[in-house]
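Hey team,

Filing this mostly as a record. A colleague (T.K.) asked me to run one chain through the structure pipeline before their review meeting, and I want the input and output archived in the tracker in case anyone asks later how it was produced. No errors, nothing strange. Just documentation.

Input sequence:
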Amino acid sequence: MTQESCISNPMSKAIFQLVSAHRNVISRKIRSLGIYPGQEQILMQIRDYGEQSQNEIKEALAIDHSTVAKSVARLAATGLVQKQQSNADKRISLVALTDEGQEICHSMDTIWDEVESVATAGLTADERAAFLVLARQITQNLTDASS
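Output structure:
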């Protein structure tokens, strides 16, 4: 019997290890930009989809409202985002990137490109494509199960 056959839940363990290793590398690198883990996701969400409410950010990233509120407040304090009232509904604050926030996003793109290059080193184009198909299917299975 191999050591691997004795491991309970090998897929879940492999997924956890993969996510954890990736997150650790990204976290270490983005700290050099003066941002904390999780903040990069908010910045990239705003960069990719434009000005939006904290509720829209919460829904898109599937994180709780208090986390979004705290992160947005910290990002605003450091000058990476700005908040302004919605013209359509004065009760809603919209969050947008500042010029400095745009620059940070550009730096994060470079970091993500570097990490992806390291993570996929030694994989063929077919292996990369197969990984994406499998990862999407596993994500969909888990998403469906949580609905």
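Quick notes for T.K.: The mean pLDDT is 92. The helical segments are 10-31, 39-49, 54-61, 65-77, 99-119, 125-145.
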